[in-house]
Amino acid sequence: MKFTKGNKSIRSKRSRAVLLTVCLLVISGLIAGCSKGPEEPNAPKLLLGFSQLGSESAWRIGNTRDIEEKAESYGVSLMLENANQKQENQIAAIRRFIAYKVDVIAFSPIVEEGWDNVLMEAKEAGIPVILVDRDISTENKDLTKCLIGADFYSEGLHAGEYLIRKADSLGLEHVNIVEITGTEDSTPMRQRQAGFMDAIKDDPRMEIIESINGDFLKSRGAECMRELLDKYGQDIDAVFSHNDEMTLGALPEIEEAGFEPGKDMIIISIDAGQEAIDVLKEGKINCVVECTPMLGSTLMETALKLKAGEEVDELIHPKEKLFSDEQDLSAMEPRGY
Ligand code: GZL
Predict the structure, then answer these.
(1) Do 189 and 181 touch, CB atoms closer than 8 A?
(2) Distance CA 176, CA 164 (A)
(3) Is 63 part of a structural domain of the chain?
(4) 74 three-class SS
(5) In a domain, 22, yes or no
(6) Ligand 1 atom 1 nearest Cα
(7) Domain span at 303
(8) In a structure prediction context, what are the per-residue pLDDT tens digits for the chain, which is 337 residues long?
(9) Dmax of the chain from CA atoms?
């Protein structure tokens, strides 16, 4: 539109008005884009029900702490129930989450069997389920959406491979091994044992003289070690323990019996919590395979994706390392569990 000279004042007023209107529209659009819209400000993005199996180890306590901290930082409202090592308590907790109509259910199954009925109830209620840390055994593959947890088989394999390297370096011709296992029929117990056995099965020097269940508990680790020392004494060349708690329970029993753990017996453990790493540095443990409990971020991200109707990976393994007397451990970061 062409303005004549006589309209100069009108033109400048009108163009100022147009400019002001455009600015106001832009500013209001920006504010609208930043505001939370109709939602309540700071409303939780998701209600997550989590059944934790217990508090049996530093690993488990670290896992619970990490999940609570990450729920906070991701703005997730968390209903966490501790089952105190009882499957029936986990099943009851899952039923409460269903009744409460949570958006997503997550749980760390204490054992692999016995979940089909309650998970079918969750499926019928339209609530997706995430497995954390441990797996379940079921024919019905669509009862859960995802497993977030360690590759326990690899942990066992790496433990066995370390023992072979250690036997080579010591020039051992025969290695009598005692195994202290985790909770019977749990995923870490089954898969750590399988990986360890596969690593040593073709080495004629290796012999597992006894395998005993320590239930991932420190007290049971001590009892098991006392029993094994009474039975085999100095014939024990190596101890393969499925977690640090049981290892830390076993060490004083070995010393009490007059042996030097880490020297008279090769000690191999799994988890890599701070206490075990400190003892590794003292030379009383020879190898600790890492099993990280820091699964909280992956859990929150996966649960938020499920709530948003997005696809998620069926299996998410965290990256894990091995720490041993083959390495310089002086610069290790604090473990956080
Ligand atoms: C492993 C976890 C095991 C730890 C133990 O992911 O399930 O359970 O290794 C814990 O310390 O008790």
Answers:
(1) yes
(2) 12
(3) yes
(4) helix
(5) no
(6) 188
(7) 46-150+294-319
(8) 333 333 444 445 555 655 665 555 545 444 444 333 445 666 778 999 999 999 999 999 999 999 999 999 999 999 999 999 999 999 999 999 999 999 999 999 999 999 999 999 999 999 999 999 999 999 998 999 999 999 999 999 999 999 999 999 999 999 999 999 999 999 999 999 999 999 999 999 999 999 999 999 999 999 999 999 999 999 999 999 999 999 999 999 999 999 999 999 999 999 999 999 999 999 999 999 999 999 999 999 999 999 999 999 999 999 999 999 999 999 999 999 9
(9) 113
Domain count, the chain: 2
Q: Which amino acid is at 175?
A: V
Say if ligand 1 is within 6 A of residue 131 CB: no
Atom of ligand 1 nearest to the CA of 133: 6
HSE, side-chain direction, 13 A CA sphere, residue 288: 27
Q: Which of 154, 191, 241, 271 to mutate to test the pocket of ligand 1 (most atoms within 8 A of CB)?
A: 271
Q: Check if the beta carbon of residue 189 is closer than 8 Å to that of residue 183.
A: yes
Q: Report yes or no on 332 lying in a domain.
A: no
Q: Which helix (H) or strand (E) element contains residue 36?
A: none
Return the SS3 of 212. Answer: strand
**Interval between CA 327 and ligand 1 midpoint (Å):** 24
Separation of CA 196 and ligand 1 centre (Å) = 16
Residue to mutate (ligand 1; options 216, 246, 292; most atoms within 8 A of CB): 216
Q: Domain containing 254 — which CATH number?
A: 3.40.50.2300
Residue with tokens 């958006």: 103
Judgement on whether residues 146 and 156 belong to the same structural domain of the protein: no
Q: What is the pTM of this model?
A: 0.86
Cβ–ligand 1 distance for 70 under 6 Å, the answer no
Ligand 1, atom nearest to 149 Cα? 6
162 lies in the same domain as 270: yes
Could you tell me if residue 34 is inside a domain?
no
One domain for residues 129 and 220: no
